[in-house]
Amino acid sequence: MTSINRQPASAQLAGVERPTEMMTPIDGSPSKLSKNLHATPKKTGPTLHRELHDRLERVGCFRRAPWAYGIKITLLLVVGALCYLALLTGPELVLRTGLVAILAFISVQAGFIAHDAGDGGVTQNRRISLWLRHILMSFVSALSSSYFDYLHKIHHLTLSRGASEPAAVTVADNPYEIRWFKKLVSWNGIVFLVSTVCMRGVTFRLESLRYVSTNKRTTSLDRFLMALHAFVWLLVPLPLIGIADTLINYGLISLVAGPYIGTVLILNHEGMSLARSLGHLSLMERVTRSTRNLGRSRWSDFFFGGVNNHVEHHLFPQIPSMRLREARKVTSEFCRAKNVPYVETSFGRALVESAKHFRTVPRDRLVTEALS
Question: Which parts of 204-339 are beta strand (E)?
Fold first, then answer.
């Protein structure tokens, strides 16, 4: 792992403004999370966060790019449709394997764009953003958009506010999580890490089903699009390739997508400081001490959908993912100048550090907190 600032912690804290935020408990109900996420904590005086915001705004990092997203969405949907149709012909093993891999990749990439739409990075039009989120996540990926939104808002609130009050909710409080599976593999930290990451595509879908069945009043669109997804993938292919190949194709896509989703979810935070233990620090330091950035290459940006630039994403969720690369340059220089800790590392190094972390986590904490 590399860190821009190599001074002792006491030196790193010198000159960093102390927090003036008045923390308030987070309401964890799905209906109120959106309001909580966008509520602005009370502050007095200028902050580093505001100063960095102004710098990023001057270089255009907050400019939305609807046409670029439109091209990407069109490519994903067209390629995905062609691969789906090719699977219906019952191709040979090599071609079938390639098609499965491409479709798994597309489902995760669609989720990245849905994530950006939810944060307001694609367009200012809320109705268009809502439909993009649901089509790309609930239909294309079969993950409830409302459930992801529920988890995502809690995750961001935990970092932005520190979740320091006893009444504050965290992802560990998630009642929809598949705890029995985590308990089953929690006897060893490394086994737990590998198993939960590889199965994340399956468990995420099961959690989505729990969520929409519990919150029927607010998830009618999720349920319709997820049912349409099931119709397209599990009923349409039956007369063409049979039940065995239908289930194998769908199962393989879910299993291949699992490690992809899982690694994206864990590598930016696991092994770093827990955000809710940093509530006494400023927003800037809570984020930079609990989050690591991954590789700087354009390949990393493409593979991770831009959220390898995760420090910047948590500081300013509304920045479009395709502009996070530029925001990272500005933020790293800003943190160096202001003596704020800023950590970035390679994909491989982050994986090693996460594995070391899981080896030391007690079994009860693996079940209640890790990979949430």
Answer: none
